[in-house]
Design goal:
An eight-stranded parallel beta sheet has the order 1-2-3-4-5-6-7-8. It starts with a helix and ends in a 6-residue tail after the last helix. By secondary structure, it is an alpha/beta fold. It is 37% helix and 11% strand. Helix 5 runs parallel beside helix 6.
Length: 369
C-alpha cells in the first residue's frame, strides 16, 4: 500500500463537521426539452427541426464518452429517474446535506452551448440556461450559486448576457470552457473580461473544432482526458503573454477541473523564456509567474496524487494554499469526497482555507461567517 493510500485510509480532516464550499457541482435538466419553456418559439422550432450543432473537426466528433450520463457515479442516479445532477431534492440529500456544503458553485457544462456553430442559437440557449438554473436551482436552494453561461465565441452577445445578470446575488462567476476556437488570451475574448465584474471560471473541456494535441487526433479516451491539462496550459500561457492581466488588473480567473500540479513547471518555463524574449512583449511589466500568482485560482479536482504524498505539499506551497478551491466534481465518476480528497495532514488554518475560506474570498469577497 502506498503512502498516499495509507494516509487516505485515515480521517485527515473534519470536513463533514465544518462547513464546506464545493466549487464544481454539475447540474443538468432531466431532459433537454425542459429548457424549451425558457426559449423563444423560433428556437424551439429550430431545435426540433435542425437539432444542435457543435463545431466539428476534420477527423472526429467533438467529445469522448465523458459527455454521457453514464460517466457519473453509480449512486448518483436519482431514484425517481432522470440523469445524475438533474434532481435538486436528491442532490440535497445525497451531497449537500451529508457534506455540510455551505456554498456550492454550479458549473453547467452539458449542455454548454458557448461553442455552438450557430452563434444566434448559442446565445439563445445560454440565455435560457441561465434563466432555468436561477429559477429551478439557486432560488429554491440558497446554498447553491450559479455561473453565467455565455456564448463565448460571440463576445458582444456574451457581454449582453453578463450585463443582463449584473449584480444578481445568485450569479458568482462567468463560465467559459477551455477548448475554444482560439486561445483565450486572444483579443476576440477581451470584451468578456472587460465586462465580467465577477471571477471568470474556465472549465476544462469544450470544443473549438481542433484536437487536444498539437498534431492530430488521439486514438483513445485516456489521451483526450490527459490532454485537457495540456490545453489548459496553453490557455494560461495565452492569457499571460497576450497581457490580459495587465490590461484588466482586477480580473480573477478560476481554472476548474484542470488539475493543478502542472502550474509550477509552466510558470518556471514561462519565466525562463520571457527573460530572454521579453522584447517581444513590452506590454508585460512583470514575470509571467507573478501574473499567475496574482490572478489565477485552481479547483482541486482532479488532484494529482504523487507517491510520496509530501511531493504534493511542495507543489501546493509553490502555488499557494490561498489559491486552491476545494471541489468534488459531483456527480461525476472521478468525484472527490471531502473526507478523503486531501492526502496531507493540514493545520487548522490550511484546512479552513482549503475547504471554504479561499472560496469565500473569491466568490463572496468581504463575506465571513
Amino acid at each position: 500500500m502506498s503512502q498516499t493510500e495509507l494516509t487516505r485510509s485515515q480521517p485527515v480532516n473534519a470536513a463533514t463537521k465544518m462547513a464546506i464550499a464545493d466549487c464544481d457541482i454539475h447540474h443538468s435538466p432531466r431532459e433537454f426539452s425542459m429548457l424549451y419553456k425558457y426559449l423563444e418559439p423560433q428556437w424551439r422550432d429550430h431545435l426540433d427541426q435542425f437539432g444542435q450543432r457543435a463545431r466539428q473537426g476534420n477527423y472526429s466528433g467533438p467529445q469522448y464518452p465523458k459527455s454521457q450520463p453514464d460517466a457519473s457515479r453509480r449512486d448518483a442516479w436519482p431514484p425517481g429517474g432522470g440523469r445524475p445532477g438533474s434532481n435538486l431534492d436528491f442532490m440535497r440529500t445525497h451531497h449537500l446535506d451529508p457534506h455540510n456544503i455551505e456554498l456550492g458553485v454550479l458549473a453547467m457544462i452539458r449542455p454548454h452551448p458557448g461553442g455552438f456553430q450557430n452563434l444566434d442559437l448559442s446565445a439563445a440557449l445560454c440565455r435560457a440556461i441561465n434563466d432555468w438554473q436561477v429559477t429551478e436551482w439557486t432560488q429554491p436552494e440558497p446554498r447553491l450559486k450559479a455561473s453565467i453561461v455565455v456564448p463565448y465565441e460571440d463576445a458582444p452577445a456574451s457581454v449582453r448576457e453578463i450585463e443582463r445578470w449584473a449584480g444578481h446575488p445568485d450569479m458568482v462567476q462567468v463560465l467559459l470552457l477551455s477548448r475554444t476556437v482560439e486561445p483565450l488570451g486572444n483579443r476576440r475574448y477581451w470584451p468578456i473580461y472587460e465586462a465580467a465584474g465577477l471571477p471568470v471560471g474556465v472549465h476544462a473541456f469544450g470544443y473549438g473544432g481542433q484536437p487536444t494535441s498539437s498534431t492530430g487526433w488521439g486514438s483513445f479516451y485516456i489521451e483526450d482526458m490527459v490532454g485537457h491539462s495540456q490545453s489548459c496550459q496553453s490557455m494560461v500561457s495565452s492569457m499571460v503573454v497576450e497581457g490580459i492581466f495587465e490590461r484588466f488588473p482586477a480580473l480573477r480567473v478560476v481554472l476548474i477541473e484542470a488539475g493543478f500540479a502542472w502550474m509550477a513547471s509552466l510558470a518556471w518555463r514561462l519565466d525562463r523564456n520571457w527573460r530572454r524574449l521579453r522584447a517581444e512583449t513590452p506590454h508585460l511589466k512583470r514575470l509571467p509567474s507573478e501574473y499567475i500568482k496574482s490572478h489565477i485560482w485552481l479547483t482541486t479536482q482532479p488532484m494529482e496524487e504523487p507517491d510520496p504524498s509530501e511531493h504534493l505539499r511542495d507543489v501546493i506551497e509553490w502555488i499557494g494554499w490561498d489559491r486552491l478551491l476545494f471541489a468534488t466534481d459531483y456527480p461525476h465518476w472521478d468525484y472527490d469526497s471531502p473526507q478523503t480528497a486531501m492526502p496531507l495532514r493540514l493545520t487548522q488554518e490550511q484546512r479552513e482555507a482549503f475547504f471554504i475560506g479561499n472560496a469565500r474570498d473569491v466568490y463572496t469577497p468581504g463575506w465571513r461567517s
